[in-house]
Amino acid sequence: VGLRSKSASPTSFRLTEKFILLLVFSAFITLCFGAIFFLPDSTKLLSGVFFRSSSVEAETRTGTVSDTSTGTGKDEKILAKIRKDHEKALLEAKDTLQKGASEIKQDIKSDKEKLALNGQGKGAKTDSLPFVQYERPPGATGHEPADPDIKAKRAKIKEMMQFSWDNYKRYAWGSNELRPVSKQGHSSNLFGSLKGATIVDALDTLYIMEMYDEFEAATEWVERNLDFNMNAEISVFEVNIRFVGGLLSAYYLSGKEVFRRKAVELGEKLLPAFKTPTGIPWALLNLKSGIGRNWPWASGGSSILAEYGTLHLEFMHLSALSGRPVFAEKVMNIRKVLNRLDKPQGLYPNYLNPNSGQWGQHHVSVGGLGDSFYEYLLKAWLMSDKTDEEGKKLYYDALQAIEKNLIRKSSGGLTYIAEWKGGLLEHKMGHLTCFAGGMIALGADGAPDDKTGHQMELAAEITRTCHESYTRTSEWENCFENVETKMLYLYIYIYDPSSPIHLFG
């Protein structure tokens, strides 16, 4: 008893109590930072605390902002604008959220009835598709390279394709994917109960490689088994690039009407995804009910740039092949929305709320979540025989903003494309960004202001960085033979950021 009374006083804390208090304090700090940096539209809060927004800077230059010491002027104008935008967004979101499933279904049904009356909906059977004069693209098949080395490499690639296709057909025919280790078919939930992704996706490759027996077997499967009439939720983006894109490619290569008919039928099934206040489509769609939603993790229910921005190639061709302008109108509206929005430093954030029409988190990436949006802008211009001037301008303006704000060079001389979060750079470049070297090279020929040579050099530098990341990763992984070695390189990574291992953090 004497010892206990001597060692404990009312004001002292035991070690465990101190540890608990430290944990509570750490959790509070984490919560505060999370609220600032990760909640939707948090950059609007940050702009008033740490940064000056572009609109405020513009007002300052024109002399329309009063001194903050007066208690009126700049702060009140900023707050009034934020309040107005917020109220507008709330009204739009409330109007959408108050609709029940039955009302949404009725709206979709009404739209379909209108389309049918105009010969543009499901009511107009795909048998009524207009006549299209098919022209087989030159050079797709029938040519062999003269160089024996290239000819041998080409034969090896075809051999690999044959091996892959034969095993898919043996173990997973009709499934979306083959799991090579277990040798079983697998169907990702990205496609709901829609089947045959590998078959549809491989059609153009089979044709170009002159694997005609395999192509005919795949065509027969499409005609007999590819069905879109199901109660299933699918990813609009994935179904568009894999199924719609695969069917369109197969049609353009072979001229078989089954592919045009199936592509248009599926396109009609995807149209309800655009039924949002802004016309920015949902990421997920139930093919039967036409009810859509976004990924729950995507910045407060936002649509993703790489998904809604990667639709217009296919949808423009759906209009051309069906004679129905509704497909083109839906994707051209996406451009209108993007043109209307203020873009931070000319950059496109990865998240956009389809109800309010406002950016979500100001996270910009040329890799995952953003990548194919830029690719499609360039290809829209090229595939229009360079008549889509709007697509061209959007692409080169975006590339200029990327080069100014995101492209950096490491201390070791490697050029990379960083990510941008609310004005702060994250100096990392993911694997998915490595397509950018090819994209920039592809667009270099049409670059404005005689920048063709510069863009080709930039494309080569980015490609070199990606090549180095792959080769160095292999080398470093070979060193990870035991726990001690792993700990050594972890130490290097933490205490020597200039080490090559830092590239693969």
Automatic annotation (TrEMBL):
Q: Which residues cross the membrane?
A: 20-39
Q: Which cofactor does it need?
A: Ca(2+)
Query: Under the cellular component aspect of Gene Ontology, which terms does the record hold?
Result: endoplasmic reticulum; extracellular exosome; Golgi membrane
Q: What is its main location?
A: Golgi
Localization, per the record, is:
Golgi apparatus membrane
- Biological-process GO terms, alphabetical: carbohydrate metabolic process; N-glycan processing
Catalytic activity, EC? 3.2.1.-
Q: Which GO terms describe its molecular function?
A: calcium ion binding; mannosyl-oligosaccharide 1,2-alpha-mannosidase activity
The record describes its membrane topology as: Single-pass type II membrane protein
**Where in this protein does the record put region Disordered?**
119-148
| Family annotation (PANTHER family) | MANNOSYL-OLIGOSACCHARIDE 1,2-ALPHA-MANNOSIDASE IA (PTHR11742:SF31), MANNOSYL-OLIGOSACCHARIDE ALPHA-1,2-MANNOSIDASE-RELATED (PTHR11742)
* Family, per entry: Belongs to the glycosyl hydrolase 47 family.
- Record protein name field: alpha-1,2-Mannosidase
